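May I ask for a sample protein chain and its fold as tokens?
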Amino acid sequence: MVVDVVRVMAALAEQGVTVLFKADAERMRDGVRPWTFVASGVPFHEGLLVRTDAASVEACLEICLPQLRERGLVIPE
């Protein structure tokens, strides 16, 4: 899966979603899911957010993008 991360983040931001990608140096050294994806904002209710820790950016997206689409957000392919 090849996804333009900047395009995805911009599309979500335009829909009122705050998106964070994080690479954790300590977890990377330890080989333990160093990437974190968090999306939160207006489209979500009661503080609900979409979040995961994974081994790669691609894995984060594979987990989180379907969840965001299920909540009615439009995400470019």
